[in-house]
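Entry 14. Two folds queued back to back today. First construct below, sequence then structure tokens.
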Amino acid sequence: MLRGFAVLIMVALCPAVACCEQAEGVGADAVPEFETYDEMRTRFGELYAEGRLEEGAGLLEWALPRFPDNVLANSFNLAIVSCRLERYERAIEVMEYAHERGFWFNAYAMGADLWAPLRESARFEGVLERNEALRAESQKTSEPDRLVLTPEGYEEGKEYPLFIALHGGGSNIAEFRDVWTSEKLKTEFVVAHLQSSLLVGMGSYDWMQDLNVTRAEIADAYQILIEEYAIAENEVIVGGFSSGGAASLEVAFTNVVPVKGFVVLCPRSPDGFTDENVKAAHGRGLRGAILTTEMDPALEAQRGMADVLEGAGIPHRFVVTPDVGHWIPDDLGEQIDSSIDHIRGE
């Protein structure tokens, strides 16, 4: 779900973690006192948006030792601002500080172009290696998760259709559950939000790092769901955004889960989307929808997938929302419901 430098700004405005000594030329008396982290974060966001980076750096330097429960975001934000101010050693310093305390940064964000001036530094190479080592260590104990939402007026024992919803890359259930919703999902479906075990950042996950793991986790979750809930097994739909959309296509076209249809937003083409699998999916009566946006980087590849579906005779919707990048369109709920109607043949 991460989108280059825009994501760094998002991270900058999210809660997280603290740091060490002040940057050269920045005095603690140059910033106001804030009693809460949220107040400080709001002010930093304003300064950053206005391009007042020197003041933003000063505010973060003041805040770092004062909000010890927020080291991850504070150190990363200060690294961003320091890099933009060409204080490259300071940027590296604050990332090392976070690592020393067991915190590590989103692997996607660490690959951003912002860090280009640091890439010739052996010290920064060490930061990247340490970040990956901390991620790999955390991966050893990472487990998949799920959240099941039942429809309004839910009745035990009554069969309901199932929608398996998969978050985007670099996201999680908590961030995704309120985005991926619609009137039909709230009133007609058991909705199972699944969370991958494959870590991208602290508390953020991805589906496409290891498709063997992804297929197994979704298949296992499906078996648990049909055992715990009265599911109409001929009315199972899978869908999601970005990485979750690609994973949805993977399980739909490899028949890992016996789904009736798919609703995917801004996906890339997964390994399982082959001519052979598409032909077999047509035989199973699979239907679906590829939703995307005008400025999505994978738009042409998505058009290509839609052409393959057309050629195979698989009934599908292909919808391009104008003037939006790789993100959630404002009318997603309506698009989901229209896609459900299409999958049902209505």
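Second construct, same run, same settings:
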Amino acid sequence: MEFTIDQQLAIDTLNKNLLVSAAAGSGKTAVLTARILGLIANDTQPVEVDRLLVLTFANAAAAEIRARLRAALSQRQRQNPADSNLRTQAALLNRAQISTIHTFAIYVIRRYFAIAGTDPFFKIADLSEMELLKREVMDQLMEDEYAAPNNTEFTAFVERYGGTRTDDKNVPEHVLALYSCAMNIQFYE
């Protein structure tokens, strides 16, 4: 692959952390792979691949980087079987932190669960579980608000958005819709 000037600059820039950001299909994976290969297969000062942190937004990109590195290291080993660094890098590749940001965060939390104060066996909820949890929280919130004495603000909100029936499903739907909108705003807090 022939790289653009900017891509080659990202590959060749050394002794710095680097953020590569570009549109889908623009060659980010190839650039990151070439950069990593340049660092780990360096003849004078190779960096051990398991000392790098490579984060992507997609599992497929992380898997592709790892596969491309494995293939490139294998090819270089065939060309230069006496190179002990290439053997070492190939052996360390399985331990390398090449993953999505989410996967790395999970790794850190599980590894340092005692410091984080979390259960090491925590589980990431899938979308259907998240919807159920939102509904349970909403049901409990509605129950608590209806039970609270002199809750004039809540009563006014229900009268405004509750529809024609007193216990209409519109109120929870409005709150969940607002929540969904807020989650799509960059700095919603």
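Quick look at the second one. Residues 50 and 96 are 4 Å apart (CA to CA). Residues 5-116 form a domain with the Rossmann fold fold (CATH 3.40.50.300).
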